[in-house]
Amino acid sequence: MPDFGRAKHEKYRIALPSAKPEYPALPWTCADAVMINVYFEVRKEILLDWLPSEYGRTTPAYCRLFIMDNPQSPIGPFRDATLSLGCRLSMLPAVFVAASLTNSRDALSAGIFERGYPNTFGKIDFEADRTHAHALVSDEKGPLIEVTLPLLQTIEPSRLAYDHVDAIKTSGDDGSKNELLITAPDLKIDQAAICKNARVEYPAERPESAWQILNNRNLVSAQLVRGTRTFAAAKPPG
Fold first, then answer.
1. pTM, rounded to two decimals
2. Do residues 116 and 234 make contact, with C-beta atoms less than 8 angstroms apart?
3. Is residue 112 part of a domain?
4. Distance CA 40, CA 61 (A)
5. 3: closest CA among 67, 104, 85?
6. Which of 30, 180, 211, 234 would be 144's cystine partner, CB 3.0–4.6 Å?
7. Is residue 16 part of a domain?
8. Residue 1 confidence (pLDDT)
C-alpha cells in the first residue's frame, strides 16, 4: 500500500485580496517561453508532511522545481517559479504545489483566483542560452533557492514529458474554503537540453520556508526547455 500524505488543506490557505483585480482573461498564450526544470530527492517524512491525503508518495520521494521565463504574454513579460511534490493521484503520476512565486502582480492575481498558484510575490533572476542556464528565486525577505545548469546537451524534445500540476486554491467569500485543482501540462516543447552537472543551492538560510524545508538531498535530473506555454485556469479533478 502506498504512503499517503498527512497535510490538511488548511496548510495551503492564503489571505485573499479584498477585491478581485482585473487581468486579461485566461488562457494566456506565452510564446518563446523558457523553463529550467529539475528533479531532486527529498526526505520521505518531510514530503508526507506537506502532501495532502488525496495523494500517495512516489519511491524515491522527490520534488520537481520549475522556473519559467515568459518573455511574451497578454500581460507582458513575467516569470514564475514552482516547487512541487512528486506524487500519485488515483495511482496516476502528478506533482502537487508546495510553494510558488511570481514577479508579476497580474500573474499573481490570476494564480490566486484561477489556478491556486503562483500565490506569492517575489523576484526571479533568470538567464539562459544554448550553453548554460541559471536562476535565483527570492521572496520579499531575500534569496530562497538557486539553480545552475553549467553545461547543456541538446536532446530531442520528444524525450521529455511533464505530468499535470495540482494545487489547493483558497476560495469562498470569506476565504475559508479550500479547493483542489488540476492544471494540465502547459508547455508545447520545441527545443530541449539536459544538464548532467546541475546544482541546486541555498544562498541564504531560510529554515522557515518550504523552499528550504523541502531541500535537495540528491539531484536526479535537470533540463532546459523552450516552447509555447498556455497559462490556463485549473479545474477540479475528474
1. 0.96
2. yes
3. yes
4. 9
5. 85
6. 211
7. no
8. 56
